[in-house]
Design goal:
135 residues; 6 helices
Length: 135
């Protein structure tokens, strides 16, 4: 297993970033949604959603959210957060390099620190291309 897969799934990951909370995510999501012009109920793909802070905030604003993460621990946390917020989100446990879908999305996001962990820059570049192609 690659080091970052272990790190994102470790019990320590959420503790290190405990200062990044839901209210911070909601402020960022509000800023994004105010500055982009969407029709009603836009679709969103959150690639590497982590504990789901941004996915939940977007869902609460009416987005149809699909959220992907490589970590079973973080997907579990994200599902719990969505349930507590009564937010309907389609969670997918997957490496973003391996995720396949025929869906098109109005917005594809990757927020926080999930790109840049790959051993070769060409893979980091491919991730950015994948994000672009999904929109």
């Amino acid at each position: 297993m690659t080091w970052y897969k272990d790190w994102f799934n470790s019990e320590h990951y959420l503790r290190v970033y405990s200062h990044r909370d839901q209210s911070e995510a909601e402020r960022l999501v509000e800023l994004i949604s105010k500055n982009l012009n969407f029709n009603a109920n836009p679709s969103l793909l959150d690639m590497a959603c982590g504990a789901g802070r941004h996915a939940v905030a977007f869902a609460k604003l009416g987005f149809k959210v699909t959220a992907i993460d490589i970590s079973p621990r973080l997907i579990s946390e994200a599902k719990l957060s969505a349930e507590q917020a009564s937010a309907e989100i389609d969670f997918v446990l997957s490496d973003i390099l391996e995720y396949e879908s025929n869906k098109r999305f109005d917005l594809v996001i990757n927020l926080f620190t999930s790109i840049g962990y790959f051993e070769k820059d060409v893979i980091n570049d491919l991730i950015l291309l994948l994000i672009f192609l999904r929109a």
